Amino acid sequence: MTVTINGRLLEVVAGTVVSAAMLQAGEPCRISVSGEPRTAMCGMGICFECRAVVNGVAHRRTCQFVCADGLRVETMR
């Protein structure tokens, strides 16, 4: 299946969570207030470091969100 991450198309296998797809793409999930790129740390939805914009909805915990064909993801700033 294909997802779009920060405007780039990426092929992922079924069952891939969005945070893993972002790592595969080399994109951070969010940018901190100090400008540092952040990505999933716990992988359980507890740390909130994996928040990103998924299909236009901000603050989605990407480690808890499974990719679907045509999904659009953007790094949260």
The rough form would be described as globular
Helix-strand pattern:
EEHEEEEE
Number of helices: 1
**DSSP E strands, number:** 7
| Gap between N and C termini | 26 Å
SS content category: mainly beta
- Rg, rounded, reads 11 Å
Q: What fraction of residues sit in β-strands?
A: 25-35%
Helix content: 10-25%
Strand order of the largest sheet: 2-1-7-5-6
Report the mean per-residue pLDDT as an integer: 97
The largest sheet is: 5 strands, mixed
- Name the poorly predicted regions: none
What would you note in describing this structure?
By secondary structure, this protein is mostly beta strands. The protein contains 1 helix and 7 strands; from the N terminus they run ββαβββββ. The strands form 2 sheets. The protein has a 5-stranded mixed beta sheet with strand order 2-1-7-5-6, with helices on one face. Strands 3-4 form a two-stranded antiparallel ribbon. The longest helix has 8 residues, at 18-25. It is globular and about 35 Å long. The model has no long low-confidence stretch (mean pLDDT 97).
